[in-house]
Automatic annotation (TrEMBL):
Residues 5-114 form the Gfo/Idh/MocA-like oxidoreductase N-terminal domain. Coiled coil: none annotated. It comes from Herbaspirillum hiltneri N3. The keyword Membrane does not apply. It comes from the Bacteria. It holds the Pfam family GFO_IDH_MocA. This is Galactose 1-dehydrogenase. Keywords: Oxidoreductase. PANTHER family: CONSERVED EXPRESSED OXIDOREDUCTASE (EUROFUNG), CONSERVED EXPRESSED OXIDOREDUCTASE (EUROFUNG)-RELATED. Gene3D superfamilies: Dihydrodipicolinate Reductase, domain 2 (3.30.360.10), NAD(P)-binding Rossmann-like Domain (3.40.50.720). Belongs to the Gfo/Idh/MocA family. InterPro entries: Gfo/Idh/MocA-like_OxRdtase_N, Gfo/Idh/MocA_oxidoreduct, NAD(P)-bd_dom_sf.
Length: 308
């Protein structure tokens, strides 16, 4: 099959770190252009806006949209309207409704829309999912604690409305939880801590259950210095399981599991290519829905101002 002519919109940290290496090592793609106001990729033609790019390069077949979520809908609508397949970075948008609207637009045009969740492609996730399908979870605890100053230096959008605050990493944990659990969960109570000078939370405590009352508790915190924690602990009927390092390691009853070496973004781009070839879309909004529920149901506490 011929490579898909792909463009990237919104060039920044994740594009340089992950998208460019994953795309350039995949023969299923040809990276033909970027559209970004201030950034570019060496050797790739760059344009200041998505409209300028589509006017200059009508041969573009697909776009990856990697700007902050508050600004993604307009670009996605323009791309689908211009007949391009669309890869959405996570979270897929600023609201559930705008992504539903994109889903309908993609379906009506016969185009692929992929709401990507990179953490679902971490090496341990499918192994853990298979384990839990055979040995059902009785209790789950998610601990996702990291240092915002280290991972998001100078990023103002994460603190603005729609930037999700600590749910920007926390939604990665929820994308794994919703992938591995054999049943649906829903939020019962939550507490969100907002710095006095910011519009988005710096910490959250979430208590979910399933219909049978099995509990999933999650702690997200952006104030963790020193060792960083991205763990999911599960007690099942017969085993004790620890997924750690965001899904790159897995222990069952203390024994390390052998895992595939596959990276998250190479796997995402293979899936996007398969979706395009199959004429299909993949838009699962469950991680974003749980975050929306947390903003709707969660108690709001005001905490110390956040100074960068
Ligand atoms: P970023 O570097 O702060 O932003 C990406 C680029 O978006 C910026 O360089 C900027 O490019 C463009 N942009 C910023 N504000 C914009 C606006 N108002 N309108 C249009 N474009 C704007 O962010 P990032 O860390 O790459 O994250 C981008 C997305 O990827 C987020 O949804 C994030 O959750 C997700 N993600 C990030 C990571 C990570 O480790 N950073 C990991 C996985 C997923 P120009 O100034 O050139 O327009």
């Amino acid at each position: 099959m011929k490579p898909v002519k792909l463009a990237i919109v919104g060039v920044g940290k994740i594009v340089y770190d992950q998208h460019v290496p994953a795309i350039t090592h995949n023969p299923g793609y040809e990276l033909v252009a970027t559209a970004s106001r201030n950034h570019s990729i060496p050797g790739v033609p760059s344009y200041a806006s998505i409209d300028d790019m589509f006017a200059a390069r009508p041969d573009i077949e697909a776009v990856s949209l990697c700007m902050p979520p508050q600004y993604r809908y307009k670009a996605a609508h323009a791309a689908l309207s211009a007949g391009k397949h669309v890869f959405l970075e996570k979270p897929p948008g600023a609201t559930l409704s705008e992504v539903e609207s994109l889903k309908s637009l993609a379906a009506s045009r016969g185009l692929t829309l992929f709401a990507s969740w990179h953490s679902r492609h971490a090496p341990a996730v499918q192994t853990l999912k298979s384990h839990l399908a055979k040995d059902a979870p009785k209790e789950m605890t998610v601990i996702w604690k990291e240092d915002v100053r280290h991972w998001h230096p100078g990023q103002e959008w994460i603190w603005e409305a729609g930037g999700l605050g600590v749910f920007d990493p926390g939604i990665n944990a929820l994308s794994i939880v919703t992938e591995i659990l054999p049943w649906d969960i829903f939020l019962r109570s939550a507490t969100l801590e907002f710095p006095a000078n910011r519009h988005s939370p710096i910490a959250a405590n979430l208590h979910f259950e399933n219909a049978a009352g099995i509990k999933v508790n999650a702690e997200f915190d952006w104030r963790q210095t020193g060792e960083q924690t991205w763990d999911i602990l599960v007690k099942t009927g017969n085993s004790s399981v620890r997924l750690s390092k965001g899904g790159s390691t897995l222990q069952i009853d203390g024994a390390a599991c052998a895992l595939p070496e596959e990276g998250e973004y190479p796997s995402l781009y293979r899936h996007f290519r398969d979706l395009i070839a199959a004429g299909a879309s993949d838009v699962d909004l469950s991680p974003l829905r749980h975050v929306a529920d947390a903003f709707m149901l969660g108690k709001r506490l005001v905490t110390d101002p956040f100074i960068e």
